Amino acid sequence: MRYYFSILVGLMAMCCLNDAPAYAGGTDTITLNRGWTLTETSEGLPLTATVPGVVQMDLIRHGKLPDPYYRLAEDSIQWVGERDWVYRTSFVLTEAQLLRPNIHLLFEGLDTYATVKLNGKVILQSKNMFVGHEVDVKGIVRGENELEITFASPLRSALPLYEASGRINYPADNDHAETRLSVFTRKAPYHYGWDWGERMLTLGPWRPVRLLLRGETYLKDYPVINFNPKAKQPIEVWLPEGTVVGRGEGALRYRLKDVTGKTVYEYTGNLPRGTRGNSLYVCHALPDPQLWWPNGMGKPYLYTAEFLLYDSKRAKTPCDSLSFRVGLRTIELVREADAWGRSFYFKVNGQPLYAKGANYIPPTLMLPARAQAELSQLFDDVVGSNFNMLRVWGGGVYEDDRFYDLADERGILVWQDFMFACTAYPGDEAFLADVRGELDYNIRRLRRHASLATWCGNNEIREAMKYWGWQKKYSKETYQLFAQSYTKLFRQLIPSRLKVLDPLRPYIESSPDTANWGRPASLGLGESHYWGVWYGREPFEILRERIPRFMSEFGVQSFPTMPSVQRFSRPEDWAIESEVMKAHQKSSIGNDVILHYIKAEYPEPKTFRDFTYLSQVMQGRGIALGLRLQRAAAPQCMGSLYWQINDAWPAVSWSSIDYYGTWKGLQYQAKKAFQPVVLVPNKGGDTIRITSDRMEREELVRLEAEVLDFYGNKLREWHSGAVCLSRGIMQEDIAVPYGTFFPDEEAKTTRLVRYRLTVLGEQHTVLSEELYFAMSPKELRLPVPNSFFYSLEPSEDGRSHDLRLRSPILRKDLYIECSIPGVHLSDNFFDLLPGEEVCLRLTPRAGYTLPKGLRPESFSFLSINDLQTR
């Protein structure tokens, strides 16, 4: 199958307004990020403003708005989204700049209802947060210029659309308002609230505003690069319609460079007069093409494509140029009938992929507030946790270009939803026309990325149409309207635009595509959001039999760690039923369900701190069990994306990394569950399944077992025969002598088995390790905590510290808490075996440095042992 690369608008030299160089050909880009003011339209003196930004950011900075994430501030910030706001700035152009043949203003993102004036003239009216706009201002700009952007309240702007619909109150239950206006506005759905997020209706120029100074002829879009390894000339290069703008004959030079900067292919083609679309076309091969691979399958190799535009065949100096990185790879979504029903898995470069990762939501409600270092930290986290995929969920936003650049660089595939989630949407001509512009803009912007694996029409809407009771809640006519609009949008408009703009990349109409968790027989037919665990309160063990073809959502909630809780609350708030904790818990059933799952496996918490700790132990162990069981079911199941990796604000949620960047127990457990090789005991414990997706060479291995009591005494040893660990996805079952490991009921409560998979002939090469307990933690007879040894010392590089731990007894689910923000531990929420020293590396998170005063007393420790003695 061919892989389709295509490329978004290129912005060349970045420069400040006052330092713009003399014109020497090409496109000069001036970023208008200085001198902005903000005023409410009805009153007040102007405030200095940040662009890119949103109104709430500047009001907080000027002390006009409280921290929206602290305690009970949510209600006090809602007035901002009910009013109109004006941003203003001025800029000066030199005579030389005014003589440029083409001058455009580029607005990369306006949130959401915006009217733009340049020198008193309306040049743009926008009503879609997800679309960028490029406006020709050649005849409007002058030496001194005034730019004004008025943002109208998204609530008041949508109200006429609600009235025109016949006052249909759409089933957007996550819109935390009595009248749900969110469906009428192309604005991030989660801004209106969600079952993990507060409501904050932001307004503002949330992405950069730039001035583009261009020559007579320029590159407006990126050329397209396709890769088809089955063809004799596998690399295809061509120009989409409108890529080159200008008059007269010219030429375009194309170069492909390897990672060292060496040119490995070069071609120059002439461009005819008039229409430039599809006017250059070339196919070529490379002697030894390097492929782009996802994390864990190989290197994400990226070439650099360079295009030089000449306005004359004989010109020596290019009039414009651009360059971008290209990954050569193919991707397929395989959906075929088989013994289990119908498959659902991805192939990359012809190789089956077991997808390992999580769902990703926007990292904050005030999107421009995210630092680039935090985005880089996210990709460090996912790569370091053995992920190969993230799903960009459909209730948020299409991410910034840098997100997809990092995914390309780090080998992380992106499942990309379009921004529709959990409700019916209108299907009138005006709405569909607006959506069409959104589709075209974002498909063109993102299709060039090697990391982009698939498009998905929406989150859970097809399932909702069938199973969420809308047929009973609404009249027959209204429900039919929902169904007709669904067909127009997700079965007609989106596929038709993809066919034109990105025809070779897979499209999934809705997620889940077929399966419904309340109907187990359907799990064999496609990907699933399995919410029997959590909403159905089914035990984690049900995941042994509820095996989908691809798990694209499942999860349970947990609280943040206590240091994170302390950042958004006061000591008097530290109770499950306090008003502050309830305000940061947006699931109406959340705390009750968390306690339900804790009590099933663990001692009942007696304090608030115990509750937060146990919620993370429960979440981490339970979801990791599901991840391991799904991997052990390959190739029946070929993907595990849990819900969710991150938070949009400090809250009780399903996340594995909290809003402040602290790893919860789940992130540590997911890292281990996604290792290339894992050991998965069956329900009875008498069989261990070796499951692997390693791409390294074949090796002979064996399974080894040590039976230990909780004081470190070795009671028995055992090992299997040799097993060949092959490349790619494989499973191997090993029978173990369970009866000799646990001869009676007392043994089940007082001992454990440490399993290790080792390479034959290499004593110290351990590919995987698993600790097995025969009983739940609350049934184990754990030793009373006593002496505990730990030390802290700087590492050799001086940028981190080593924390060494040693205990004479088993410390079950040991949690290490650091009172200093921004300190990351290489492991946490783990079982510390008796008598064995563990060394943990302490490193700073993005935006932090480790303090010189980091001392042992900065740490505290908690384990299941401690709870059993209370």
Written account of the structure:
With 870 residues, the chain is α+β, with helices and mostly antiparallel strands. The chain contains 17 helices and 49 strands. The chain has a 6-stranded antiparallel β-sheet. It has a 6-stranded parallel β-sheet with strand order 31-30-29-28-27-34. Strands 2-3-12-7-10 form a 5-stranded mixed β-sheet, with no helix packed on it. Strand 43 and strand 44 form a beta hairpin. Helix 13 runs parallel beside helix 14. The radius of gyration is 29 Å and the shape is globular. 45% of the residues are buried.
Give a short summary of the structure:
The protein is built from 17 helices and 49 strands. Strands 5-4-6-11-8-9 form a 6-stranded antiparallel sheet.
Give me the count of strands. Answer: 49
Largest sheet features:
6 strands, antiparallel
- In helices, the fraction of residues equals 10-25%
Helical segment tally?
17
- List unreliable stretches of 5+ residues: 1-24
What would the principal axes of the Cα set say about the shape? globular
How do the strands line up in the largest sheet?
A: 5-4-6-11-8-9
- Tell me the β content: 25-35%
Mean of all residue-level pLDDT scores: 93
Radius of gyration: 29 Å
**N-to-C span:** 62 Å
Which structural category do the helix and sheet elements fall into?
alpha+beta
